[in-house]
Amino acid sequence: MSVSRDDVLRIAQLAELDVTEEALAEMADQMSRILDYVAQLSAIPTNGTVKTFVPGPDAIRFRPDEVAPPPLAFGPEEFAPAFKEGFFVVPKLGQFE
Amino acid sequence: MSDAKAVADRLVKAKRLNALLTPAKDLRKSLLAQAAAARPTGVLYGMPVAVKDNICTLEFTTTCGSKILEGYQSPYEATAITKLKAAGALIAGKTNCDEFAMGSSTEHSAYGRVVHPLDKTRVPGGSSGGSAALVAAGAVPAALGSDTGGSVRQPAAFCGVVGIKPTYGRVSRYGLVAFGSSLDQIGVFGRSVHDAARVLSVISGRDPKDATCEDRDPLRLPNVPESLQGFVIGLPKEYFPPELDPAVRRACDRAIRMMKELGASIREVSLPHTPYAVPTYYVIAPAEASSNLARYDGVRYGPRFDGNADLRGLYRATRGQGFGAEVRRRILVGTYVLSAGYYDAYYRRAQQMRALIAQDFRNVFDRGVDLLFTPTVPSPAFKAGEKLSDPIAMYMSDIFTVTANLAGLPAISLPIGRVKGLPIGGQVIGQAFLEDEMLEAAYALERVVPATDEA
Q1: Mean pLDDT, residues B149-153
Q2: Under an 8 A CB cutoff, do A56 and B355 touch?
Q3: Do residues B426 and B163 touch, judged by C-beta distance below 8 A?
Q4: In the prediction, which pLDDT does A70 show?
Q5: Taking the mean position of all CA atoms in its chain, how far away is CA B439?
Q6: Residue in A17, A42, A95 nearest the CB of B349
Q7: How close A77 gets to chain B, by Cα (Å)?
Q8: What is the pLDDT of residues B19-33, one digit of tens each?
Q9: Cα–Cα dist A18/A3, whole Å
Q10: How far apart are CA B299 and CA A76, in angstroms?
Q11: Within B300-390, where are the H helices?
Q12: Using CA atoms, how far apart are residues B452 and B437, in angstroms rounded to an integer?
């Protein structure tokens, strides 16, 4: 298995996502299967100079640089979980590892 | 002009499919108001169009089939919706889908699975399964979906309707909730090629709000051609492998014979990097998803889980409890392939492979081939639960559709026959921004192919 339980926990931390103890083994197993499957990409020779491909316009068109109010039908106080005096309310920062 | 009440009744009648997320009461009220306000001169005047729940609307909530956006009312609407309304169409409710469009069966919705309209034990495909099922059940003539790896064409094939994924940049993505931004396009379902095409024509065209939308006029619809004289249609041999379901092969052979009878010249071609398309897609799409879905953190919108924790605990609890299993899996895979030490082995390699896959198509089109014809999916609709425990088996359902997304090309799926009563789809892939040619071929094939006959 290419992904261990510790790997899952480390990645989950990067992704700011709780993975419960019960789900850990299955997640490690399924991530391993997916990553082992996509690893076939590294087995084939691609010329190192292949230019990456991104669809869409060749150049970004800019809009006029004008200050305009956000085009919202109603403000964040309507859809935010907690909003007060123009600010989103969040719990205190806590301890970052 | 269809009666707004009758439209609502038809949608409510299809309740057993679990395809519609909008409550009946809200739907009726909104449809009556919309019908009263609709512009009678619009080209889609009175046409009800159901909309996948990952496209923002002011009329209804937008949940993306997720608990993390339960009850979310968007404060703005997608450009595609604004254009539909300007053309007189009625937004006929929001349709169930795999959570954040991640899935191929519409079983990964926080609001329950969608039932296949012809066989309740089977899936309608996904991720736009709700939209496909409602069109197939005759509840609406057309619906919007989104197609990141086949999420319009695959359910269209499973349900026996038409599904179009336009060229990347043909339709504005403003207001389409982002999953894989370099792959996503809003697509259209219709009961016929023409129903789908005329909705596509309305929603297409430039939009200053989306920098990846091309600065082009809306798509002009072609006439239905008398024949396919002059068309060179390529059959990529990688899309007809020996293990292809024999009934799918028979239906494709019949459609190919008919295109030949219509005067098309048929040529076998090769797209040699096709076997790497699914692994490429399942690196790039989760990578983009892990970045796009970072915004759901319980701070600005959507519900908040465990509000007593510190900020980081709030993020983790909200995301851990708000996202379903498949979304969590893809966020973690995406984070993994982008993380230090793995970026070159996975993500960079996938980007290079994507370029080679796009080059395969250019090579074929440069050699005089106008369009490609393939099966849409390797098999008809599978049983509910059949592929849930095996993500790779589920991903293989997209094997013939992901390439058009990777290369940014337009593609259409249309019904070409049935096997034991289940629909089979045929796919026509076109050249970038030549949807008109693709539609001509689809119009011509649709007229002759016995879409509901056993293959």
Answers
A1: 98
A2: no
A3: no
A4: 79
A5: 17
A6: A42
A7: 9
A8: 999 999 999 999 999
A9: 17
A10: 11
A11: 311-322, 325-338, 349-366
A12: 25
Nearest of B437, B414, B422 to residue B161 by alpha carbon? B414
pLDDT at residue number A53? 87
B303 token code pair: 């519900």
Residue B157 contacts residue B125 (beta carbons within 8 Å): yes
Residue of A22, A27, A53 best to disrupt the B interface, most CBs of B under 10 A: A53
| Minimal Cβ distance to A41: which of B276, B310, B325 | B276
CB environment B393-408: b (16+ within 10 A), e (fewer): ebbbbbbbbbbbbbbb
Q: Smallest CA–CA separation between A29 and chain B, in Å? A: 11
Predicted TM-score (pTM) of this structure = 0.97
Beta-carbon separation of A14 and B335 below 8 A: yes
B136 pLDDT band (50/70/90 cuts)?
very high
Catalytic pick among B30, B52, B74, B201? B52
Is B52 annotated in the active site? Answer: yes
Q: Residue A73: helix, strand or coil by DSSP?
A: coil
Q: Which two tokens stand for residue B380?
A: 């008809």
> Which of B41, B403, B43 is CA-nearest to residue B218?
B43
What's the average model confidence in pLDDT over B36-51?
A: 94
DSSP code per residue over B205-224: S--TT-TTS-S-PPPPPPPP
Q: Which amino acid is at B30?
A: S
pLDDT at residue A46, as a whole number: 65
Q: What gap in Å lies between CA B73 and CA B70, rounded to an integer?
A: 9
Which of B352, B354, B360 should one mutate to test binding to chain A, selecting the residue with the greatest count of A CBs within 10 A?
Answer: B352
pLDDT of residue B1: 47
The pLDDT tens digits of the residues spanning B84-107 come to 999 999 999 999 999 999 999 999
Q: Among partner residues B300, B309, B359, which is closest to A76 by beta-carbon distance?
A: B300
Quick one: tokens of B32?
A: 């009556």
Q: What is the mean pLDDT of chain B?
A: 96
| Residue B2, pLDDT above cutoff 60 | no
Q: CA B418 to CA B452: how far, in whole Å?
A: 6
Torsion of CA B378, B380, B386, B387, to 10 degrees: 30
Residue B436: per-residue pLDDT:
98
Tell me whether the omega of the peptide bond preceding residue B105 falls within 30 degrees of 0, making it cis. no
β-strand pairing of B185-190 with B162-165:
antiparallel
From the list B127, B128, B172, B413, the catalytic residue is B127
Among A32-46, B135-149, B208-222, B315-329, the least confident range: A32-46
- Which residues fall within 8 angstroms of residue A26, CB to CB, at 6 or more apart? none
Q: Which of B30, B128, B146, B151 is catalytic?
A: B151
**Helix (H, G, I), strand (E, B), or coil: what is residue B199?**
helix
Which residue reads 């005067």 in tokens?
B263
Q: Which of A5, A8, A16 to mutate to test the interface with B (most CBs of B within 10 A)?
A: A16
